[in-house]
Amino acid sequence: MTPELMEENARRADTYRAAHPNDTGKTESGGRAAGFSRLAVAGEVDVTHGRILYLEDVSVSFDGFKAINKLSLDIAPGELRCIIGPNGAGKTTMMDIITGKTRPDEGRVFFGSTIDLLRFKEADIAQMGIGRKFQKPTVFEQLTVFENLELALKTNKAVTASMRFKLDSNQSDRLAEVLHTIHLADSVSRQAGYLSHGQKQWLEIGMLLMQDPKLLLLDEPVAGMTDEETERTAELFLSLKGKHSLMVVEHDMSFINTISDIVTVLCDGSVLAQGTLAQVQSDERVIEVYLGR
User: Which pLDDT tens digits describe the chain residue by residue (293 residues)?
Assistant: First the structure.
């Protein structure tokens, strides 16, 4: 890990501890700080080190082309990180690696301090609490908004269990909460196929939220949206910040300016620059390869 990343990690750890004063950092190893050697606990994401996602020196090649080249980055719990960069920079491949769709040739990818994502398949990673939204919304258009969200609940999907399933009070409350969060409370009985493009995007995000993800990967979420829909999506993401960690890949600089704290610029499969949007926009390297003059 580079000195810059180590310094950034320390700062985030301090921020996390300040926000969680009751978390003493005590571990089963006698109170020492947790590390990547600490045993994973089922259903638990260990964020003692102040990060929920960690990639170090990750590389992958396709037919001799290095799509990801010694990529290192990390994301703190509750952080909203924006990822930008030119086409072919490795943004989608990076998300493929995190979610288990693509296996890297080398490097490490951890979910928290204990879960080595490279040991798991896509379905397992999704169950752990990593949700991914692709650019094109994928909802069940013949079903209502309510039915889409109900299907997305974390429940036993076996045939018999599904036939006998009935929402309990906690699930009903959760569904109502998500409907309000995604701005679709007034469209609960509407067939999803009749929603606008932006509303379908919100519904798909809502379906991910029904899974109670700890980390959301969102690929160009406002592409094709109206200005009003884009504004409401920004409000949505800011409301999720702190409750979930978000990685947002986007090209809309106005949208990024509204939601971002830290922006990471990828180029040729590695981090070219990182900082606030103003900082990366003034970086000559970023201007040269991505933003233009």
Answer: 444 544 554 455 455 445 545 443 333 333 333 345 555 565 578 898 899 999 999 999 998 889 999 999 999 999 999 999 999 899 999 999 999 999 999 999 999 999 999 999 999 999 999 999 987 888 999 999 999 999 888 654 444 444 455 677 788 899 999 999 999 999 999 999 999 999 999 999 999 999 999 999 999 999 999 999 999 999 999 999 999 999 999 999 999 999 999 999 999 999 999 999 999 999 999 999 887 65
* Cβ atoms 102, 93 nearer than 8 A: yes
pTM value?
0.80
Phi, psi for residue 176 in degrees, rounded to 5: -65, -40
Q: Which of 42, 56, 69 has its CA nearest to residue 109? A: 56
CA distance 126 to 97: 13
